[in-house]
Amino acid sequence: MPGGLRWLAPMTPTVSRTARHPIAVAAPQAAATGPKTASRHRRAAYDEGVRSDSAGDSLGPQAQYAALRSRDARFDGRLFVGVTSTGIYCRPVCRVRTPLLRNCRFYASAALAEAAGFRPCLRCRPELAPGLAFVDSSHALALVAARRLTQAVREGRHVALPEVAAHLGVSDRHLRRIFAAVHGVSPLEYLTTQRLLHAKQLLSDTSLPVTQVALASGFASLRRFNAAFAERYRIAPGALRRVRSKVPSPDGALVVRLGYRPPYDIAGTLRFLARRAVAGVESVDEGALELRRTLALAHGEHTPAGWLACRFVPQRHEIEVTIAPALAPALGPVLQRLRQWLDTDADPALVDPALATLPGAAVPGVRVSGAIDGFESAVRVILGQQVSVAAARTLARRLVDALGMPIATPFDGLARLFPSARQIAEADAAAIARLGIVRQRVRALQALAGEMAAGRIELHPAAPLAPTLAALRTLPGIGEWTVQLIALRALGWPDAFAATDIGVLDALAPLVGARDAHAAEAASAAWRPWRAYAMMRLWRNLEGSR
Question: What integer pLDDT is reported at residue 198 of this predicted model?
Fold first, then answer.
């Protein structure tokens, strides 16, 4: 393996004076592991701050190395290995020859590996690894800050840490301290790593000019981009493009890959999405393990629109994604939204044990089917108030037929985009009501659309949770059931739980003895902080039994 790797078991490590890095197999050597600008003091400072939000016992060096040799995909994205003999760092699933144990240096993030002077492997491509799922814990502030930095990079926006700190309601200094304690690197180091990995993916998977790649990755100038690339990766951007592993298909579409940690309940995810697919916007082929849909998203001053197709490749623990050429400039945010939609960053090793007491058959690797567009998911939740899944899907199809813009795709039946917040906010309320949507729902839809079009509410995983939920509760026609489902699907909150949901109450009746919301809420405490996953499993078991 050209990059080294370490196995990070679910744990909350304790840093001691004798083991500066809580997950290191061996202490870093003084030579040949960092760039010329790096120093031993600088690297030690990063090592000192590495932490994990997982819980459990850490494994010894031999067990960690055994996990590396087995290429265990469950730890993809949770650890990276730097190899001192090559100066490269890899994912645990890299398929090249396993390095010797004495040459391995293990890190909890790509940013830590790069801070130690390693450059990313061109074969396993660390930018394709799944990310870390949000956990409602004492480190939530730093995790949300990291999400906001990553999102800004993917969207090609400039971001300043004081702006992020103000958005989260803390001081710049406090955020820096918490960020370094949780992630082991400074926010600037983390941001630089995200920018370079994003640029590396754009260079590998698109034909965008290098200047556009630099700007799309958040660099203020091509000179700064080239300098950062040369220092971190010791290769020119143009040279990387010549050895890229993926090229556009003949029709101009992009083909990229997303990794996930097994197990993954692929059949359950596809069945769940198929039951809720909106005609004209989405289609699901459960037999072929494929999903297709249309998509439009704001990116800079433009709103590119196109289509995408996803195919699960279980033997590689990957999802192969084909993306329309029109969406190529927005590849970063498209892939970020896909990760949320299909919950590729989930860690079943943490989630599944917490759900052991759920009634019904155990389903390893259940995923929360999130949102590819936060506003769209919220609209569909509102349309689903007090009606069946089939009725909500019918109402959504009527809304799409009435307000959705037409779009050409290579797939039969995919011909419209879901209406935007501005379209719904500006539509005639009576015209929406004539679609069969009761006026209370119309008021809720237009109130939410108006707030989102004005930028006063954001619905994505990097949005601050408590203020967003509070803002939703002030809108007409939006109660706690709606708020919890929006938190689950649009905000990616793993502890969301709608105790009044009829499906949840039906599925929990054997456990609590009756369809009682208070009893369901009390029982759900056993599944914290993964109650959203508990809801998904309850729904899927219930739907599978009908």
Answer: 86
Residue 457 and residue 440: Cα distance in Å, rounded?
Answer: 20
- Could you tell me how many residues make up the chain? 546
Of 47-61, 273-287, 428-442, 512-526, least confident by mean pLDDT is 47-61
CA-to-CA distance for 418 and 323, rounded, in angstroms? Answer: 17
What distance in Å separates the CA atoms of residue 347 and residue 334, rounded to the nearest whole number? 22
CB 416 within 8 A of CB 376: no
* HSE (side-chain half, CA atoms, 13 Å) at 512: 21
Confidence of residue 33 (pLDDT cuts 50, 70, 90): very low
Catalogue the active-site residues: 90, 501
Backbone phi, psi, residue 378, to 5°: -65, -40
* Nearest one of 144, 120, 123 to 132, comparing CA atoms: 144
Inter-axis angle of helices 502-512 and 517-524, nearest 10: 80
Query: pTM score, two decimals?
Result: 0.73
Helices (H) and strands (E) in the chain, counts: 23, 10
Using alpha carbons only, give the angle 330, 327, 407 rounded to the nearest 5 degrees: 140
Task: Specify whether the CB–CB gap between 217 and 157 falls below 8 A.
Answer: no
Integer CA distances (angstroms), 174 to 145, 165, 310, 421, in order: 12, 8, 41, 35
Say which residues have a Cβ less than 8 Å from residue 266's Cβ, sequence separation at least 6. Answer: 289, 312, 314
Measured CA to CA, the distance from residue 147 to residue 139 in angstroms comes to: 13
Structure tokens at 307: 């289509």
The span from the CA of 426 to the CA of 445, in Å, is 11
CA 417 to chain centre: 23
Instruction: Answer whether residue 247 shows pLDDT above 50.
Output: no
How does pLDDT run across 121-160, given as a tens digit for each residue? Answer: 988 888 888 876 554 343 667 777 887 888 888 777 777 8
pLDDT at 454 exceeding the cut of 90: yes
Integer Rg of the chain from CA = 23
Give CA angle at 89 (87, 93), nearest 5°. 140
Q: State both tokens at 236.
A: 């020119």
Report d(CA 43, CA 28) in Å as an integer. 9
Locus of tokens 């369809």: 515
